[in-house]
């Protein structure tokens, strides 16, 4: 007998799409705080400082001047002009104003990129551990993430490892540097290997450069700047991290045709562009002198060094992450399963972290500590770790 399926059901393509574990941890932290517990909050990924005043004033001024109407859905021309200049100066990407699009955060750029190039049944190579939403963005496009262990790739050779994990259905590579959650920064030689593999296999690269300004050791290489790569790469950027603009939902993507037409369609039919007065704030943000960004980077470096030395001191082995604002130590000393380790740290030491397994099986055994917080907060966390292990 066949059972009649209810008409009130969801689209099947959402079956495999998860909902953020990180939100559950955030809720638990809020619960503890409501009970009056002083929580050391290292679970987040938000800059420790506020959006700079000149950026806020640019938005206010735009509002006062009634910049509250529809803007072109791909972004205001003056914004696209400054983006073109920035991409050439900082990323070595030489694009026209038609090859850049404003997006609602880095997230919309990534969503649009995956939706633009993936068909049901396609596979995407993803270095793992990876930022959790990536797997959901891929499965939401009815494609499959193929998790490539980053440590194996670095040990045995990037190209060999990509080869080993790819299938005939492989269409794209998701390439994130600096990485969330590991803080890893791929070297130029590694970027060249990924590029060579992409060209050899005729793959598209979806590059995620959310943390491009936060590289402490080594250099940031935009993979699209390598020879032959601009035509096969969609590069996604965000204002969230560099300018502390997480809540503004401001980002952009760079790509050539035919991808740009697809990105434009997806942005048009999802949000019809980025809030007009936010785009004026984006223009202002792009005027930030490089010296200010460098000074911020030094602030993050201090935080990284303080946290990493504290972690190693208590026996949570942690190599110094070269970029982003996360430390990803081995936490097996607390518990073999990272979920249990995170729970124990939260309940006994009131330290909130994210279990490594949330970032893919290759993250198991680790915890993610976000250090985009004040130095005092990091000191408090290290002190709590010392008490936990004493
Ligand atoms: C690796 C990575 N990519 C992209 C983003 C997107 O950020 P947003 O949507 O806030 O711009 C994040 C945010 O945490 C991230 O960690």
Question: Could you explain how this protein is built, in words?
Answer:
The protein has 390 residues and is an alpha/beta fold. It is 42% helix and 13% strand. It is built from 13 helices and twelve strands. The protein has helices at residues 21-34, 53-64, 77-91, 105-117, 133-140, 150-156, 158-165, 188-201, 259-270, 276-285, 290-313, 338-349, 375-389; strands at residues 40-41, 100-103, 123-128, 144-149, 170-176, 204-208, 233-238, 251-254, 326-327, 351-352, 354-355, 367-370. The strands form three sheets. Strands 2-8-7-6-5-3-4 form a seven-stranded mixed β-sheet, sandwiched between helices. The chain starts with 20 loop residues before the first helix and ends with a helix. Bound molecules: pyridoxal-5'-phosphate (PLP). Pyridoxal-5'-phosphate is lined by residues 45, 105-107, 131, 176, 180, 208, 210, 238, 240, 246, 251.
Largest sheet: 7 strands, mixed
Shape: globular
Give the amount of beta strand, in percent: 5-15%
User: Ranges with pLDDT <50 over ≥5 residues?
Assistant: none
Bound molecules: pyridoxal-5'-phosphate
Average predicted local confidence, pLDDT: 96
Count of beta strands: 12
The amount of helix comes to 40-55%
Number of helices: 13
Radius of gyration: 21 Å
Cα-to-Cα separation, first versus last residue: 63 Å
Widest β-sheet, arrangement of strands: 2-8-7-6-5-3-4
